[in-house]
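Repro case for the chain-ordering regression, as requested:
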Amino acid sequence: MLEIKDLHASVEEKEILKGIDLKVNAGEVHAIMGPNGSGKSTLANVLAGRPEYRVTGGEALYEGKDLLAMAPETRAREGVFLAFQYPVELPGVNNTTFLRTALNEGRKYRGQPELSAGAFLALLKKKMQLVEMADTLLSRAVNEGFSGGEKKRNEILQMAVLEPRLAILDETDSGLDIDALRIVANSVNKLRSKENAIILVTHYQRLLNYIVPDFVHVLYNGKIVKSGGKELALELEEKGYDSVRQEEIAAK
Amino acid sequence: MADTSQIKGWYLSLFKDFENHLDGEKSSSFHKVRKEAIGRFAEIDFPNTHQEDWRFTDISPILRHTFSRADKKAATIPTKDQISGFQFNGMKSRLLVFVNGSYSPELSLQPPLPKGAVIGSLTDALKNPHDIVSGHISNNASAGENAFTALNLAFAADGAFVHIPDGVEIEEPLHLLFISTGPGEFISQPRNIIIAGKNSRVRIVEHYVSLDGGTYFTNAVTEIHAGENSSVNAVKIQSESLNSYHIAMTEVSLDSNANYTSHGLSFGASIYRHDLNVALNGEGSDATLEGLYLLSGNQLSDTHSMIDHASPHCSSQEHYKGILDGKSHGVFNGKIMVRKGAQQTNSYQENRNIILSNEAKVDTKPQLEIFADDVKCSHGATVGQLNRESLFYLRSRGISEDQAKLILIYAFASDVLKDIKEEEIRTQLEKMLSERFLAAAR
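-- result from build under test --
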């Protein structure tokens, strides 16, 4: 589904990604772990098309197409979704209207009929139950005045509504208490399927107790220095990022 | 400074012509007021950018035209269909139509009035000297500080005249529709007088539109007097031709416990200047001033508001927003005066602007003059661009860049529109907003 080859990217002339290779197939969950500043969030944002990030080399093929050549909205309509580390507050933009617009933009792009307000509301109710979100948040402005947990849940609600083929969750676990984490993780697990893939970007192993990945990659200084199965996350938790990195250097 | 004596001479000769067409009215007491005003006009100069209050607003393009007096007979009469195009879908209102500044009873729509209420034209009011009218005009009409207000009074002959007696509530909004239509380049100078008695309630929509996108000049003055414990709700929609000029003065005075709410919406005109002076004369009065200017191309929109806290226990809230595209220029000057003795004043002012292009600009200036010591006053001004984070967030959900911009512009403007009580007006304004900016965004 996604094939990243030797991806380089910079922010404000500073190179952050220094050659990433990653292959993600349908039905897989990949966790990308690493210390602060290793480039995890940059990778997530580059894949979603944030304009401030400049790709300086390499490529990313999404279902055989050149992902990096697409506008952010095209990527979304093609089925790529980024759950933001810091969801943006949009005062004056109604949450429900926003979600319906987003969904219908994707449907139009794929040649599907747009959903009426009524049909959308019915769909939304179902998805709300999934993320255990209060109805009152729907009539409010997008993320405005939401607590940290509510914002993250709103991201997952958007994911549930838009049904992406490739979801990238950027530190969705950060700042969540254990109950909110459980709700978010359960929702994500319900959205897992053979057809879609998930990339979990996280700093902590904790999330992976709830969403069990098929693969774990360690990102360090803009490169993936180690890949393995779910047990790699535990090893990281135990030994810390530095020792894993030292081992890698020694092995080479 | 350019020599303006020639153009002044033009307007003085226009006054002679105006007088010659007045017939019997020439000997009326009101005509003395006019003559004093033209005398004042002859003495003072047009405003120029060397004056602090006009520093950012160069009106010299207006002075390059020799506008003629609007000729009632020559004007293209709007059709019923054209009129209904300017009405607010589904809104029940009393409609007063003015064509090039002259009241048109044929095009207007007036359900029966409550006893004692007068809702009509200034021309009619002057013809049947009502105590209120003559009293009000002679007491309040002033040539004002600048050449434009003097000129308006000198030529004052028509406009809306509204008198709501004590205790009367007018349910339907009064829709004052000022339509400008060709041919020729002309000046129209409506003078609107609204007097709301004690405990009365009235809603007014002052609406300026153009039929054919012509070049003309609207020089309007609106006087509003809100009596004790009355409520006056005023919406002004300036949607003039983009080739036109609109200079306006709104003078509002509030008696004790009166409530005045205004929404000033500026979409049209090449040069727009609105002086909005609100005097909180009576204890416990309250004024809310909301405004939105949407500019593109080479448009200039200048709002000069002056909120005069002359009595204790009054409050005022002012909230103006601007959205600027192209090479447009927005000016906001918000003066708050708290006079000695106006204790327990509560005043809040905010001006926020979004600039969509590299060449648009905003000059914003709050001015606080406080002579009382027990007051709460705050002000703020911002000029910025659409938030990049917000744009990316919307796009990352599949919403196109153009639409994302529109959504954010809507959101920015919506809190100015949201308090407009008439849903029909709000809906129409939102539609105008989308038409304007969808086109601009592409």
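Ordering looks correct now. Chain B touches chain A at residues 387-390, 392-401, 403-404, 407-408, 410-412, 414-415 (CB under 8 Å).
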